[in-house]
Each structure stands twice: as C-alpha cells, then as structure tokens.
Specification:
This protein is an alpha+beta fold. Among the domains are: 114 residues, no CATH class; 51 residues. Helices cover 43% and strands 19% of the residues. The chain is built from 14 helices and 18 strands. Strand 9 and strand 10 form a beta hairpin. Helix 3 crosses helix 5, helix 6 runs antiparallel to helix 9 and helix 13 packs across helix 14. The longest helix has 32 residues. The radius of gyration is 33 Å and the shape is flat.
C-alpha cells in the first residue's frame, strides 16, 4: 500500500500504524534474527534443562550441566559468500577510457569496503540499501542501510520500483533539560527530501531540530536528486535471507554439540544407581528422580535382599560425531556454500574438481550478481550526475559493466598453461584478464608497454656503443 506522509494528524497516525505493523512483522524479525546469529547470539544460549516434576509438567532444574555451545556455521557461510563475491575489487569495463579513469578513481578502497558491507547486509537481510550522498566536505559518498532499518514502499508486487521508504533507527537528541536522550527516529525518504520524525511513545511528531532536510547541501543552498536516492540491492529475487535456509539446522547443530558436552560432564548420569529393597515411588516422581539424581528406587519380591547396583550408560562419541558431521554437511548444502576440507581437495586437485566444489555457491552468487546489476545501474545514474557537477562531461549514454571478481581457489599452473596456449588465438587483453597473477588489466598492459620500451632503448644504446658513429677503418 502506498501512503503519503503529510502534516495533518491523520497522516501521522496512519504512518505510525503502518510502521508499527512492519516493526512487529515476521519479515523484520527474521532480519534481526539473522544479525543476532551472525554475531553468535543463538537460541541455544537461552536454553534451560527441563525435567518432569511430580505434577507431570516440565520444570527447569539447575543442578545439571547446561552447556550452551555455539558452532557458528551460519556466520561462516555469510563470510564465505561475501568474500567469494566481493572480497576482491569488482571488474569495471567501459569503452570510454576517460570515463573508466573517473570510475576507477571513485571506486577506491573505501568504496569497495562499503560494497563488501553491502553484500554482507544483503545476505543477512535478503536485501540491503545503498544511499548516495554528499558529505560536509562536498565529497560524493555512499552509505549502507541494513534491511531491518528500512521499510520500503513499492509501486508493484514485483518490488521493482520504489515509491518511498521509511528508515527507522535509534538516535540521541538534546532534551529540554539540556541532556542527551535516546529516541526512535523515523525518516521518510521521498523525491522531495527527507521528512524526519521522533516517537513520543504513542505517535510520531516532527523532529525538534531538523523536521525536513534535502539530499544535497551546497553552502546555504539545498537541492534534491531527480530520483529517490535509496537503491535496493537484493540477495535474490524473492529477497529471502540466508538464515531462513539454515536456522533449523544451525539450532540442531548447537543442541547436539551442547547435549554431547552435557553427557560427558554428567558423571552421576553415566552411572545410574539401582537401590534394591527400598520403597517404590510413583511414575512422575521416578522420572524426576532419575533425571535429577540418577537413582532408581526398587524392591525385590521377597523384600529381603537389599543393596546397591549400578547400571552404566555409555556415551558413544562416534554417534555424536556422525550426527555433527551430517548437520554441518546439510548446512553447507542448504546454505549453498562449499567445504574446502572435503575429499575432492585432497592431494593436488585438478581444476574440474575445484569448480565442482564451487558449483552451489557459484549458482547462488549468480543470482546475487544479477540482482546487484540492477542496483549498480541505478547507482550509475547518481555517479553520472556527480561527474556532470564536476565538469567531467555527460557519460549517461556510456555502457558500463560491473562484474564480481570472484575469489575462487584455482590451480594456477593449469590456468597459466592455458593462457600461454591462447597466445595468438585470443587478444592479450583477454589473456591478461584470465591470468591469475593479473589484478588490473589496464595497469598490466601499460607496464608491458613500458617494459618493451625500456628493452628497446637498452638495445639501441648497446648498438650505439658497439657501432659508434664515425667509427670503422680507413682504407688506403
């Protein structure tokens, strides 16, 4: 539903109600859960040991080991995908050399750091947002907004055109008593700028210091972009976060690992005491005593013989190990990652085995790259406007390709051998682009030309030394 945020109270209430629904939605809860899991805050950390009490209901017990171990395979998957796709600077290609030079200057290390963060946030939330802006020094910058901070308002069900968006986050403002206080801030991004509100607990009121700001400030003048400067970058077309695929498996892995540690520490549990010729007890009490104390009270038929025997319960580590390995394998498969320690990587793997190992993550990143291409196309418009403002010219008609430079383990010997065999068949530029030691084709081509020129000058100097002008013998 598209809504407009006006100055009247009805619009504010409608805005507050819509935002409240989104803040409490299952979709946003999943985004927050993904960030918690990435940071190691898993559900297992809140687990309590439970036993059946005399009333037949579960109750927590505190005299038993309660390990809460986290084997964060989810974080490993996120880092694996992020570094695979955006760990290396992207390849930027355009036929206009001047345009390429300006783009390469703009996409410096700080920009690539932001793009890597953008990929990480997209994987965590299913979508992430890039905000182009000018800082106080007038420099063109980009900022990443995580998915759980931005409520988008789309014009269509396919989520292809953004009408407006609301960013919700916490900030500090100066209170009436002169002290800083934390408040919930809601910023409404429209084509006309940013309307800012703060929550007073029940509704949203205009921000006390800056109720409205424009996107661009130049001295005393302010401007707005002709487009909404909030660009979506999706992990996949359905905006499905990675956590949805693997959370159940990750929780099971943590539980099995914690249970195994509990069993190893439960010395009274590994040896159950059987007390003979003592009064029996009812079933609920029996179950509680067994779980809590590891003791079974029984009596013999004749009621004469008493004593204490033990019933040993062995903890089979092999079974736990098999389950743990299967869960890790399932997380990798469902999360579409790769396991660099698998059998295909033993010894000296050939390139076919390596590519086979990367199949799942490659398919997943292909989807991500397709969605990111749309985002980069939107970003290009803002970059072109920036270049026009700098007086570089209008490059809006120029085509640019932004391609992921995937960080894949390769068999360098095989790749180099293929590059050598391709000389005379492919252009030197294409061969350099695929050479494992070449990270910048343009720089490498320039370096090759300089080396050739230096070699030519050295040869000319040597020829001049061996055959000086005016030299030779005089014939009589």
């Amino acid at each position: 539903m598209v809504f407009g945020i006006g100055k009247d109270q009805t619009s504010k209430q409608k805005y507050a109600a819509t935002l409240t629904n989104w803040l409490n939605s299952k979709e946003r809860g999943e985004m927050i859960t993904a960030r918690k899991y990435y940071n190691g805050k898993h559900d297992i950390l809140d687990r309590e040991r439970m036993v059946m009490n005399e009333a037949g209901t579960l109750t927590p017990v505190y005299n038993l080991p309660n390990n809460r171990l986290v084997d964060n395979q989810f974080a490993k998957l996120v880092d694996q995908k992020t570094n695979y796709a955006l760990g290396k600077p992207m390849t930027i290609a355009t036929s206009n050399d001047d345009y390429l030079t300006h783009l390469e200057d703009l996409f410096d290390k700080k920009m690539y750091r932001q793009l890597r963060l953008l990929g990480e946030e997209a994987i965590l939330g299913g979508i992430a947002w890039l905000y182009p802006y000018y800082n106080e020094s007038g420099e063109f910058k980009v900022k990443v907004f995580p998915a759980h901070e931005v409520m988008p308002v789309w014009s269509d069900d396919s989520h292809t055109e953004l009408v407006e968006a609301v960013r919700y986050y916490q900030d500090t403002i100066l209170g009436n008593n002169g002290e800083l206080k934390a408040v919930d801030v809601a910023e409404v991004y429209t084509i006309n700028g940013i309307d800012r509100y703060v929550s007073n607990g029940t509704t949203f009121i205009p921000h006390p210091t800056e109720p409205h700001i424009n996107y661009i400030r130049s001295g005393s003048e302010e401007y707005n972009w002709e487009r909404l400067p909030l660009i979506p970058f999706k992990y996949n077309a359905k905006e499905i976060p990675l956590i949805r695929r693997v959370k159940g498996l990750q929780d099971s892995l943590n539980q099995v690992l914690s249970d195994f540690q509990n069993n190893m520490e439960e010395d009274p549990r590994t040896t159950i005491l059987v007390l003979k010729n003592y009064d029996g007890t009812n079933i609920p009490e029996f179950r509680k005593n067994l779980a809590t104390y590891g003791v079974i009270k029984v009596h013999t038929v004749d009621g004469v013989q008493g004593g204490v025997e033990t019933l040993n319960v062995e903890v089979n580590a092999t079974n736990y190990q098999a389950i743990l390995m299967q869960l890790k394998r399932s997380i990798i498969e469902n999360g579409r990652g790769f396991d660099a320690k698998e059998e295909r990587m033993d010894g000296d793997p050939n390139q076919m085995n390596i590519e086979s190992m990367y199949t799942d993550i490659d398919l997943d990143v292909n989807q991500m790259e397709t969605e990111f291409q749309y985002g980069f196309e939107e970003l290009k418009w803002f970059i072109d406007q920036h270049f026009i403002n700098l007086g570089f010219g209008d490059y809006s008609k120029e085509r640019v390709e932004f391609a992921f430079n995937r960080d894949i383990f390769i068999n360098e010997d095989a790749i180099i051998d293929n590059c050598v065999k391709s000389v005379g068949i492919l252009s030197s530029k294409t061969i350099l682009a695929h050479h494992p030691w070449c990270s910048d084709v343009t720089h490498e081509q320039k370096q090759i030309e300089e080396d050739k020129q230096a070699e030519l000058e050295e040869m000319e100097a040597m020829n001049a030394f061996q055959n000086p002008k005016g030299g030779g013998s005089n014939e009589t």
